[in-house]
Amino acid sequence: MKRVLFTLICIMCTLLAQSQDADYNNMKIKGVIDACLSMRDAVAAQDTLALQLSADELKAIATKEFVGLNDENETTMSTNGHLVFDYAFADSLAKGIDVYQRTSEMIRNSQINRGQNPDGSIRTKTMVVQAHGSSKHMFRASGYQELAVVPEAGGLVTMKVHVTNSAGLNENYDDNRHVVLGESYRARAFDLPTKPISKVEVEVINCCDKDISFVIISN
Fold this sequence. Notes:
By secondary structure, this protein is of the alpha+beta class. The chain contains 5 helices and 10 strands; from the N terminus they run αααββααββββββββ.
């Protein structure tokens, strides 16, 4: 009986992993996720050529600031000293400019510049979460949704997504792989009703023993 139960659990985990991989491979935001992963790895490897390439990729995609993402944390941690997933930040590092201690200023400037760009259809926002802590955020949405979280180098995270609306919708769209140990990035896709507008709550859990920055990416 135990062997049968164990086999069923293994099958369910395999099917879940395949489903989540399919989500990622078909995502419209996959290009941004890949660029952020490349940027993170290039920074960790101190590879200026790869860093410039990832910066150019982010610039070409033309993302915009995720202004509709509300921070539900009691305190907001500064991004200073952490990686910021942004073209200007990557470009500066590639040119040998140390911008780690003025990342908050760069984010403000980026918000202004990207806010003037009407072509960006993919939204991003970089934040920081404390060691073994969680960061909670909320936005309102309808229709097909794509969400991803990419932490800076060495970061391992878990992502929980809870959706509700006035018509009684109450669903979780969590990424359930390795929730205790965490993953080097998270990605989920799901459909929401067009009406009424739903409330999407995203919780990013830091599974590491150090503070880390991360970017939330959404279509």
